[in-house]
Amino acid sequence: MAVQMPTDPGSVPVDRFELDDNVIKALPMAGLNVLSSEKHARSFWGPTAKIVVELPEGGTAAYFLKTFDLQAFGKTMSVGEYESLKAIHEAVPGFCPKPFAHGPYTNGSREIYFLLMEFRKFGKMPANPDSLGKALAELHKTSQSPTGKFGFHIKTCYSRIPQEVDHWDESWCTIFKRHLTAFTDHAKLKLKWPELDIVAHCTLEKVVPRLLLPLQEQGRSIKPCLVHGDCWDGNTAMDAKTGEAMIFDVCTFYGHNEYDTGNWRAPRHKLSTAPYLEAYKQHYPVAEPREEWDDRNRLYSLPYNIASACYVPGSDQLPVIFDDMQTLCQKFCPEYLEEKLSELRGENNEHSRIGNTRNGQKKHGDKDEHEN
């Protein structure tokens, strides 16, 4: 039921959300009477709100407002999520909230951006295995890349990491390598662990082509599918009205359908339990070579876990991503891995030798013990 805004300014509720002028202009129809705008839910990127309006023909409609208080980066995030929702809604209407608008705030001095979409009331979170598996597979099967290639027409963001997917290529291997490189580069700056940098390099140069090129060789092919990009417990739910699975907080691109299940590998997620993967596989069979599915799944889990290690306080994913990359490298390029690790050990020994030599050198002006 709609809630009327108070007529007495002194009785404004503490959870009232002040709407920016550009948000009001972005409402789907001009001249709508805003009945209420209240803080609702939460986001890492800025305040969020539920807006209820009175429709001209009677009745009400509700919208969800998401803000990005991240300066210029907020524009990249808001536009990317808008285009992601738009693409998913066009492919499978109802599977995600319908987006209406995005843009900058005009009031105040802060550089804030917003995203306006339909309001959907959540039921159970995460969505049920059967419902989610069927709906996600439908998105993967129904969506059609506008170019027939992998990639996307605009940059999207996973957490604070821009995804390098804003280009088109017939090779999934090429797209994924560029995508994963953005995450490993981020890890190099944030995590500062030389051994991790080595296994990341070996993974990119040897493991990625070894596992992904065969998907499109010897008569095999995979379809560029619209992926959620961040399908985990907190971004799926049962729609309270329809009783069907729905998704949100998406960072989409056209990739290998199995990429979405890479995020289900982490035991921290309820989606990691067997019923979810089994339900999905019933509707979308495993790609050939089937026997390498688990290796691909481990590879596809890396971007998600790297972001967790970089940005989630108290995350325990740093040893996980190291072990996963080391496991893949030991299986597919053990000699190359050992070569690169040996080079690192040699560099460390050389630095240690130089450091010891410098520490032992007599400085200009120092006297030997026998000098007066």
What do these coordinates show?
There is one protein chain. The chain has 372 residues and is α+β, with helices and mostly antiparallel strands. β7 and β8 (161-163) form a beta hairpin. The model is unreliable at 1-14 and 353-372 (pLDDT under 50). Helices cover 40% and strands 15% of the residues. The strands form five sheets. A five-stranded antiparallel β-sheet has the order 1-2-3-5-4. A two-stranded antiparallel ribbon has the order 6-9. The protein has a two-stranded antiparallel sheet with strand order 7-8. The chain has ten helices and 13 strands. The longest helix is centred in the last third of the chain and has 27 residues, at 334-360. It folds into two domains: 16-118, Phosphorylase Kinase, domain 1, CATH 3.30.200.20; 129-341, Aminoglycoside 3'-phosphotransferase, Chain: A, domain 2 (Alpha-Beta Complex), CATH 3.90.1200.10. The chain is globular, with a radius of gyration of 25 Å. Residues 344-353, 363-372 have a biased composition (Basic and acidic residues). This is protein-ribulosamine 3-kinase.
